Amino acid sequence: MFVSSCSGCGPGYRSPLDAMKGPREEIVYLPCIYRNTGTLKPDYLATVDVDPKSSTYCQVIHRLPMPNLRDELHHSGWNACSSCFGDASKKRNRLILPSLISSRIYVVDVGTDPRAPKIHKMVEPVDLYMKCGLANPHTSHCLGSGQIMISCMGDPSGNGKGGFVLLDGETFEIIGNWERPDEAAPFGYDFWYQPRNNVMISTEWGAPRALIDGFNPAHVKEGRYGSCLHVWDWTSHRKLQTLDLGGEGAIPLEVRFLHEPSATEGFVGCALGGTVFRFYKTPKGDWAAEKVISVPSKKVEGWMLPEMPGLITDILISLDDRFLYFSNWLHGDIRQYDITDRRSPRLVGQVFLGGSILSDGPVKVLKDPENQQQPNPRIIQGKRIHGGPQMLQLSLDGRRLYVTTSLYSGWDKQFYPDMIREGSVMMQINVDSVNGGLSLNEDFLVDFGKEPDGPALAHELRYPGGDCTSDIWL
């Protein structure tokens, strides 16, 4: 348990700025997926050594296979985090692993031996269906109460339904729904809560049965994908507001409040719109949103549509609330913005890592409003990077940005078939956390194309000591 020196602390850190002084990351956990790859093997949790002083640096040092096939592990969370800092009885010793497609939830013991996790418990899909009327679990956050809350994307039939499941933090049994009866949102995806302002904000992806096998642009017009933020009363669990972001805010995915626990604002990345919206509390006490960043689509030929969006798929905020980072999975770049002025983010860093508009690829850019040249292929240690930058995780001190290339197996197969054949990768970006700036660490590469059971799709990253996308401060 990594904590600052104190008496009787619980897990995590007293504040975001204390977390920035925490120890350097030595291992990371990544779900690795085989669904849609042609390999009939269970997904697994990989433990990767990221300690430059270690003899196994940049290697997978442990693999924990799940007992079932085709789960589609996706995101993960903790049984306890900095929201439980004041409770000395809590330990961050269980990783919560929801399965996006099977709706199974795994609880993994990472406390007994952090370098060799093992399965502690499974919550079967039927429990989710019967007790909550929900399916397709996505984001998991621990709560200050000791409970665990998981957002869901659908009902058991594959229709969109944005509800929330509560788990007991000790037994990991399902308690029931967090939202009130009949108040689930039309779609679900991510969420972030801020108790000091008695608020939670949730986002929307789409109906699971629409996106399960790939992306069909017609489904957007048919209303099978979302474009709204939902504002919830944290105490009463009532849905207070729905903020429709419109076409520019289509498919709002990852949502991040500022880390400072009294903050009344945050940001959300909108995939199809290629935009970042700032949401904020108004002087009247309700909530509103405004577009603050826009990545223009590029006019292209040789692709499925005449215009290619950047497809912002992951965003995060540094623990000091100074920088915002996001990935453009289709265009192939990661961007760093100085958000000191919350309403006018300033681009200070950019690096290309693959993508769909490479100079030697089949897509030709006919018009680019940003006047950027088509990037050259990215080759690291002789390995050509297939796919684009997707999941991001920042070191606690803000100096290293880790990135993986898999989004979701059904979409990987559609947009980046070479990544299905060659496997995804994990890369590391050096960050100038003083003036801004991004550069690739050419000495770092974890190649999941060389896994023992064949190429795998590695997704979200977690540090055992907590990180800036899972810890919430009260």
The gist of it:
By secondary structure, the protein is mainly β. The chain has a domain at 65-379: 7 Propeller (Methylamine Dehydrogenase, Chain H), CATH 2.130.10.10. Helix content is 7%, strand content 35%.
Task: Write a structural description.
The protein is mainly beta. It has a domain at 65-379: YVTN repeat-like/Quinoprotein amine dehydrogenase (Methylamine Dehydrogenase, Chain H, 7 Propeller), CATH 2.130.10.10. Helices cover 7% and strands 35% of the residues. The protein contains six helices and 34 strands. The strands form nine sheets. Strands 29, 30, 31, 32 and 33 form a five-stranded antiparallel beta sheet that branches. Strands 3-2-1-34 form a four-stranded antiparallel beta sheet, with no helix packed on it. It has a four-stranded antiparallel beta sheet with strand order 4-5-6-7. The longest helix is centred in the N-terminal third of the chain and has 8 residues, at 125-132. The chain starts with 15 loop residues before the first helix and ends in a 16-residue tail after the last strand. Mean pLDDT is 96; it is low at 1-8. Pathway: Organosulfur degradation. Its EC number is 1.8.3.4.
- Rg calculated over all Cα atoms: 20 Å
At CATH level 3, the topology of the domain at 65-379 is Methylamine Dehydrogenase, Chain H
Which class of secondary structure composition applies to the elements? mainly beta
Oligomer: single chain
Name the CATH homologous superfamily of the domain at 65-379: YVTN repeat-like/Quinoprotein amine dehydrogenase
Write the CATH architecture name of the domain at 65-379: 7 Propeller
The counted number of beta strands is: 34
Number of helices, where a helix is a run of at least 4 consecutive DSSP H or I residues: 6
Keywords: Acetylation, Cytoplasm, Membrane, Nucleus, Oxidoreductase, Protein transport, Selenium, Transport
Organism: Parambassis ranga
Family: Belongs to the selenium-binding protein family.
GO molecular function: methanethiol oxidase activity; selenium binding
